[in-house]
Amino acid sequence: MSDAPALIDAFGRHITYVRISVTDRCDLRCRYCMAEEMTFLPRNQVMSLEEIAAISDAFIDRGVRRIRLTGGEPLVRRGVPELARMIGVRLGDGLDELTLTTNGTRLADHAKALRDAGVRRINVSLDSLDPDRFRHITRVGDLAKVLGGIAAASAAGIAIKINMVALKGLNEDEIEPMLRWCAAEGHDLTLIETMPLGSIDEDRVDRFLPLDGVKAHLSERHELVPLIERTGGPARYFRVGALGVKLGLITPLSENFCASCNRVRLTVSGELFLCLGSERKVDLRAAWREGGRAGIDAALDRALATKPLAHDFHISRRGAAPAVGRHMSVTGG
Ligand code: SAM
Ligand code: SF4
């Protein structure tokens, strides 16, 4: 542990959570996330795993207690379980939790190594339980592989939360079946509203499904008991009556919780974004290469002063450019 000062922004918010995108690449092409043809970063702009581990260490010394590895698809990058092991040595030594968000396609191969690295909970994205529909939404995905990955992670002793993006006309009729499947399998479920991040081939307005309507619909058939637990993010949690599932609703558009935001995001090229919905950033890789730990500390102090009070998303303008140019896969979901 170090006695370096905690990360507190201009609005008094304490930064304790970092999401790190370990690659912008992915083996799927989910329609709401990516275009079919994507240009990814050249490899010389990608931080090494050692650089990511060093920057993670600096964050932990400044009071960060939770780190989530994400992407793109984190498990398409070679060595990510090894990176988890490098960061995981700080569990119990400043770090409370190391987690991962994955599409699950390669989870069967890596579940045990992740568990050995200290990962106890992961989020797996799963927007449909129907193989054809799953393939349609992801353009190329094989549902059986993902279900196999989820089973392997459960067997390794990793708790699973399913992330499902609610898509009007695409999977809204599967929300109830997904809830029941999660109840049967012992997983939590979080529903996410589509966010206007990065250009895709379709218009997101057509697919936007406000979750307040979904919640009203679900509460006609289930008792939804609000949980007081908050993570500092835009999710609200409920316990679903007899099913016992913990249900999260992420509603960055219809409701925002920016006032309690405790997180920042690091891209694989080392840019630190203070808000998913803002273009403001600081180059931590350059700071590390030029000034080592002192360089990172100075850059973090500069960055904190610029964290905005709230994001500026809107999805109402049909055909308009996305609110933020970068894809979620770049900033890390
Ligand atoms: N590839 C991994 C996965 O799919 O879980 C990790 C990265 S992905 C960008 C993280 C999460 O962001 C996923 O749950 C995905 O469904 C969600 N996501 C991607 N683009 C989104 C968008 N435009 N709006 C809302 N959620 C999005
Ligand atoms: Fe890949 Fe995840 Fe984006 Fe789907 S949501 S295209 S799995 S990064």
Structure description:
The chain is α/β, with parallel strands linked by helices and 333 residues long. The chain has one domain: TIM Barrel. 30% of the residues lie in helices and 17% in strands. The protein is built from 9 helices and 12 strands. It has helices at 49-61, 80-88, 107-117, 131-138, 143-155, 175-185, 211-221, 284-304, 328-331, and strands spanning 17-21, 66-70, 97-102, 121-125, 159-165, 188-192, 224-226, 235-240, 245-250, 263-266, 271-273, 281-283. The chain has a 12-stranded mixed β-sheet. A hairpin with a 4-residue loop joins strand 10 (263-266) and strand 11. Helix 1 runs parallel beside helix 2 (80-88), helix 1 runs parallel beside helix 8 (284-304) and helix 2 (80-88) packs parallel to helix 3 (107-117). The longest helix is centred in the last third of the chain and has 21 residues, at 284-304. Bound molecules: S-adenosylmethionine and iron/sulfur cluster. Residues 26, 28-30, 33-34, 71-73, 103, 125, 329 line the site of iron/sulfur cluster.
CATH topology: TIM Barrel
Name the CATH superfamily assignment.
Aldolase class I
Corresponding CATH architecture? Alpha-Beta Barrel
Overall shape: it is globular
The average pLDDT value, as a whole number, equals 89
Q: Given this structure, which CATH class is correct?
A: Alpha Beta
